[in-house]
Amino acid sequence: MTRILLLGGTGDAQKIARQLGRAHVYSLAGLGKVPDDLKCAVRVGGFGGSEGLARYLASEAIGLVIDATHPYAARISANAVEACRVAKVPCWALRRPAWQPQAGDDWRMVDDWNGLIDALAAFRRPLFTLGREPLAHLDEIPPYQFWTVRVLDSHPDTARARILAARGPFTLDGERALFALQGFDVVVSKNSGGAATEAKLEVARERGLPVIMLRRPVLPDVDREFAGVADLLDALPPQAHADSAQ
């Protein structure tokens, strides 16, 4: 039997983890909620870079690594590929397709935080949907701006920012209500892809709002790449599944 290490932390990763049997391992970096409905083992915490991960693969007799981390978790993905090369273990990746601009969209592409701040200078009430990174910059908010920062976990508001704790998936009606209440004039987003957080882009389109979009990092090549959960699960050996005898 091939023992699987699943690198996760996303909703898609949880869908895969729920299908894995008890011999396999679901790995989380430590942020977010740890699922309690899995049959596979759950490991929380880092490995110590690619070298530490390579040692773990050898010591735990891992025969396949599946990278189902966030599309912007470039360091983790690079570590996984390097560790698999050293340990001579195949590496698969789930890489959901990026969103594509549609008619009526006003996307302003940026490469990093500095570019993002430059693009944001003309606006007053941005909605940040980047995760935790804006929290490190709350003391840098210009006096004419008020930020809303949506993150997974609660954090205190400041005089110039509202920290909104919320977890997707987000509905179209819910996003419409939020935008109407808060009066955003721009959305700041990663191009994460998938349906869970796409509604904000549709509401921005409806309201004629620009979207400052952080480009995806370039990720390393893997042995097999999948665009969807179903295709990846179909490719797994039957004994990997939770309902198989292990």
Automatic annotation (TrEMBL):
NCBIfam families assigned: PRK08057.1-2, PRK08057.1-3
Recorded metabolic or biological pathway in which this protein acts: Cofactor biosynthesis; adenosylcobalamin biosynthesis
The EC number(s) this enzyme carries: 1.3.1.106, 1.3.1.54
Taxonomic lineage: Bacteria, Pseudomonadati, Pseudomonadota, Betaproteobacteria, Burkholderiales
Keyword Lyase: no
InterPro entries per the UniProt record, alphabetical: Precorrin-6x_reduct
A molecular-function term among this protein's GO annotations: precorrin-6A reductase activity
Name of this protein: Precorrin-6A/cobalt-precorrin-6A reductase
Domain of life: Bacteria
One GO process term, biological-process aspect: cobalamin biosynthetic process
Record key words, sorted: Cobalamin biosynthesis, Oxidoreductase
The keyword Nucleus is annotated on this UniProt entry: no
Enzyme's top EC category: oxidoreductase
